[in-house]
Every structure is written in structure tokens, then in C-alpha cells.
Amino acid sequence: MKGAVVNGTWWLTQGDTRIGELRQYATDQPTFLCHFIPGPGWEGVRVLFESWATLHGPDPDGSRTAQAIKPIMDLGLTLVPEDEGQPMALFKECIVRIDGDVARVRC
Predict the structure, then answer these.
(1) What is the C-alpha to C-alpha distance for residues 96 and 14, in angstroms, rounded to an integer?
(2) Which residues have C-beta within 8 Å of that of residue 58, sequence separation ≥ 6?
(3) In 3D, which of 2, 15, 5 has the Cα closest to residue 83?
(4) Is 39 helix (H, G, I), strand (E, B) or coil?
């Protein structure tokens, strides 16, 4: 994972607005498991991530998933490692899925 830090921290941002902090606590390859701590911009995007988190069951053609993630993709979010490493664009270089206080990062 480009910019990955073992047991590190990332910030999910939209421009200069911090959406939240992700603190890695484990790895379930190929996914990094993180505690999610909401930031000042969380309330503006919370409902979009909650809608995606509620998707369960078969989605053979991917249409339900696409409908849930398209509004998140349109936000232009970035994942920034705490070590000032290279920021990663969501859905281009990594995927962040947030469900309550747990986030899963895959790059």
C-alpha cells in the first residue's frame, strides 16, 4: 500500500476539511482495520457512508453498490498518512469503508 504505516494513522479529508481520523489496529489482508474518529466534516458525509454500510446480500450486477458509492466518489475525498506520505485519492488509489467507529482501508 503506497503511503501505508503499520499501526499508523490516516486522515480522511475533503480539500482542507478533515472528515475523520483512521487509526490502524490490525490487518486482515488485504484490508487494514482502523478505529474511526469523526472530524469536523463528518456530519456532512455521514449519511452517504451509512447508506453504503447498510448494503448486504447479493448484488449480482453491482448496481446497488454503484448507487451507494457514486455520491461518495463525487466528494473527491483523499486519505492522507500521518507521516506526510503521498495522499491517496479514494476509489482511485484506495477504498475506505466506514461502519460506525470501524473503518476498513484497502489499497
Answers:
(1) 13
(2) none
(3) 5
(4) coil
Residues of the domain holding 82: 9-106
Name the domain count of the chain. 1
Contact 8, 83 (CB under 8 A): yes
Sequence letter at residue 107: C
* C-alpha–C-alpha distance, residues 34 and 86, integer Å: 19
* Residue (of 16, 22, 7, 41) closest to 94 by Cα position: 22
pTM of the model: 0.87
Which of the 8 DSSP states describes residue 101? T
Whether 44 is covered by a domain: the verdict is yes
In angstroms, the CA 102 to CA 48 distance is: 15
pLDDT tens, the chain, 107 aa long: 444 445 689 999 999 999 999 999 999 889 999 999 999 999 999 999 999 999 988 999 999 999 999 999 999 999 999 887 899 999 999 999 999 999 999 98
